[in-house]
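INFO worker-7 received task bundle
INFO bundle size: 2
INFO processing item 0
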Amino acid sequence: MSFKMKKLFFALFLLAQVAQSQEQDTASVEKSIFGIQTGFFGAWVHNESKLSNEISLGSEIGLDIGIIGNSSTNDFLMVPSLRIEPRWYYNLDKRSAKGKNIKNNSGNFISLTTTYNPDWFMIPEKKNLNFISSVSVIPKWAIKRTYGNNFTFETGVGVGYIFYTEDYGDIDGEVGVDLHLRIGYTF
C-alpha cells in the first residue's frame, strides 16, 4: 500500500472517530418513554417517542377533570381525553454540558398540544347535562424534570383555541388556557 493510500485511510479513520465522538456528545431525547401522570385536572397514560435529537412526539389517553357550575351549584366531572403533542426540547445540550440530568427527557420544551375531548361518557353520569365534544390546539411552554430514576414533575402554560365539534348555539369555539402541574412515574 502506498504512502498516499495510508494517509487517506488514516484521515478517513480520524474523521470517523471525530464524527462518532460528536454524535456521542450530543444530548438527545429518549427513544421511547412510557408512563403515568396525575395532576389537579386528571390522570393520564402517556408515551413519548423520539423524532430527532431534540424533538419527540407525545401521545396520551386519560381523563380530564372539569368543573361545571352555575349560580347555585358546582359539579366535578371527568371526561375522556386524547392528546398528541410534538415537543421541542431546546436546552438538552446546555443541561448535559452543565452535568444536569436529562434522563426521561428532563428539560425545557415548547410544544403544540392538540387535545380531543369526546362526548363518549362522563364520570359521574349527569342525565341533565349535555357535554359537547371539543378539540383544542394550544402552543405551550413547559419544563419536565426527573427525580430519582423514574419520578417526573412537569409544569407548563399555554394559550390557544378550543373548537366545538358539535352545535353549541352561536359559539363555534373560544380561547383556551392550558395550565398544568403534573407528577408522574416513568416505566
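INFO item 0 finished
INFO processing item 1
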Amino acid sequence: MKEENIIDLQIKGYTILKGWVNKKRINSINNKLPKLFNEHKKIREANNNGIVSEGVAMNVLASDDIFIDFIQEMIDRGLIDSIEKNYFKDTCILNSLTALSNIKTESNLFYKKVHRDIRGYSGNIPILLNLLVMLDDFTIENGGTLLLPYSHLKKEEPNKKFWEENYKQMVGKAGDIIIWNSNIFHASGINKT
C-alpha cells in the first residue's frame, strides 16, 4: 500500500487500491463463480443454512485453487506484508474468503443491512480487516458497496438519518480493491440494473 492508502485506512477507516487485480485474473474468477454459487447453495440447503441467496459462496478458498493463487499474488506483491506492518502491527490470519454477487432481486439479505463485520466494537485494537475485490465495475446503479467513513472511531451504530446523509458509495473499476477497518459500518448498495 502507498502512504496515502495507509493514512486513509487509519483516518477514514477505508482505502481503495485502484487497478490492483489484472483483467486476466478477474475474468478467471468470474468464470468460476456461477458453478461455485450453485455448489455452495446446495451445501447451505443440505445443512439447513438460512442464507438462501443465489449469489453467496462462503469460504471459497477450499473450492478452487484460483483463490489460493490470488492469495499468493497478494503475498508476492507485498500487500499482505503491508497490511501486517501498517494495520495489524503483527502477522495476521486469513479468516474467510467469500464471494458475493449483488443480485437485484435479493434486497433483504444480511449484507444489504447496515452492519459491522465484527461482533463487538474493538476500538483501536486491530482484530479484523475487510478486503473487497471488485470483480465487475461498481456503480451507483448496480449497487456499489456503501461505507460510513470514520464510523470505526465510534462504538454506537448510526441512526438511519445519519447513515443516509453520510455514507459513501464505493464506485470503481473491476480490479480495484477496497480495504476497510471491520469496525466500519457498511452495506451492499441496491442493484437497480
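INFO item 1 finished
INFO post-check item 1: Residues 84 and 168 are 26 Å apart (CA to CA).
INFO post-check item 1: The two ends are 33 Å apart (CA to CA).
INFO worker-7 idle
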